[in-house]
Design goal:
The structure is a single chain. It contains four helices and no strands. By secondary structure, the chain is an all-alpha fold. It folds into two domains: 1-37, no CATH class; 42-86. α1 crosses α2 (22-31) and α3 runs antiparallel to α4. It is elongated and about 65 Å long. It starts with a helix and ends with a helix.
């Protein structure tokens, strides 16, 4: 099934509040490249990884600040901190 065709069928289901079988819904989602599988806990690993990266950037930032500083490292550090805090 093509993307546009699957999109039209799914829109019709939503518009008319039709009941759809699970196999048909799976085919529609597959055609639309939509995954509904639950994450396997990768989120915790990602947060741990980001915290480690922040720690490395903090150390590098401190080292560079004492030796003159590098604004690119500071910006990277601030971006990483924002990502982890938003999570």
């Amino acid at each position: 099934m093509k993307y546009k065709e699957a999109q039209a069928k799914l829109q019709k289901v939503f518009d008319h509040q039709q009941t759809v079988s699970v196999p048909k819904l799976k085919r529609l989602f597959q055609s639309l490249n939509i995954s509904v599988k639950k994450s396997l806990g990768n989120s915790n690993r990602e947060v741990s990884y980001l915290k480690g990266e922040i720690s490395k950037l903090e150390k590098e930032n401190k080292r560079l600040r004492e030796g003159g500083g590098n604004p690119a490292i500071t910006i990277m550090y601030e971006e990483m901190v924002c990502k982890v805090r938003d999570h």
